[in-house]
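REVIEWER CHECKLIST
Item 1: Sequence provided? yes
Item 2: Single chain? yes
Item 3: Sequence as submitted:
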Amino acid sequence: MNIEKERVTVLARLYALPGYEKVLIEVAEILAEKTRKEVGCEMFVINVQKDEPKNLVFYEVFNTDQDRINHLSRDYTIKFLEFVKGKVKGDASEVTFLSEIISE
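Item 4: Structure as written out by the authors:
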């Protein structure tokens, strides 16, 4: 077993406040479409939690940490993060970084 060191996998959760679920999904879909075109983005998938559909879960994979940082500095990402303020619990996402286990 080997841990992949370069690739960055992120699990981000947004907990929508009541009444904002639909608009957050619509805006998140626009973010995802743009992000998937970025150099260094391997995967950017938005899900809703089955038992709590107001919770959005983003599964993101970038080739390097610099690719992830570049994503965060893009105008549309900054606008999205500003847009969610007042619409999600804590005004931000809850982020978990994952390390992929690669079998040799």
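Item 5: Key structural point noted by reviewer: The mean pLDDT is 93.
Item 6: Recommendation: ____
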